[in-house]
């Protein structure tokens, strides 16, 4: 009989646990569905290869720069697997290094003008987004400035 009682007691505990109310969430809250942003972590919607190649590039600059300016941006894959770009300007070539985001449609990172003899060489950070149809839009912000400048690339 004691074995039967312990089995009956275990069954009662199981039934009581199944019928107990679950912890309620506050009204309007839904379960977390993905990453830190709460977005579903499905497959990437872009392709990092969309950045690769040569782009006709235009950009804005500070008011003394006589911009909008035009040049070329060549983007390839670095040995580390990140993207690297060479941006031709009147003052020389600027090198962009960075990686793409999870969706692979945003490339961001740092830029610098390595061969500059200036006391304050051009360097800072950038963000470019592949818009499809051969279009890049984004901005760059030199170190020490408060506002970013627009830049656009087309094939």
Number of strands: 8
Order of helices and strands: HEEEEEEEE
Average pLDDT figure: 79
Number of helices: 1
Question: Hey, roughly how much beta strand do the residues contain?
Answer: 35-45%
By secondary-structure content and strand pairing, the structural class works out as mainly beta
Identify low-pLDDT runs.
none
Q: Judging from the principal axes of the Cα atoms, what is the shape?
A: elongated
What order do the strands of the largest sheet run in, or round the barrel if closed? 1-2-3-4-5-6-7-8
Q: Report the sheet with the most strands, covering strand number, pairing sense and barrel closure.
A: 8 strands, antiparallel, barrel
Which architecture of the domain at 48-154 would the CATH scheme give at its second level? Answer: Beta Barrel
Q: Let me know the CATH homologous superfamily of the domain at 48-154.
A: Calycin beta-barrel core domain
- The level 1 CATH classification of the domain at 48-154 is Mainly Beta
Which terms summarize this structure?
single chain, 155 residues, mainly beta, Lipocalin, eight-stranded antiparallel β-barrel, 1 helix, 39% strand, elongated
């Amino acid at each position: 009989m004691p074995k039967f009682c312990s089995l009956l007691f275990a069954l009662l505990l199981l039934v009581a646990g199944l019928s107990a109310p679950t912890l309620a969430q506050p009204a309007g809250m839904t379960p977390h569905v993905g990453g830190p942003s709460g977005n579903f972590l499905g497959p990437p919607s872009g392709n990092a290869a969309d950045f690769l190649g040569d782009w006709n590039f235009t950009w804005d600059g500070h008011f003394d720069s006589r911009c909008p300016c035009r040049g070329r941006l060549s983007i390839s894959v670095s040995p580390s697997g990140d993207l690297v770009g060479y941006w031709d300007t009147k003052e020389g070539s600027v090198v962009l290094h960075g990686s793409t985001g999870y969706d692979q449609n945003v490339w961001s990172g740092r830029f610098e003008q390595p061969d500059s003899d200036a006391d304050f060489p051009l360097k800072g950070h950038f963000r470019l987004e592949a818009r499809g149809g051969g279009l890049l839009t984004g901005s760059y912000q030199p170190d020490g400035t408060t506002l970013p400048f627009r830049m656009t690339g087309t094939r």
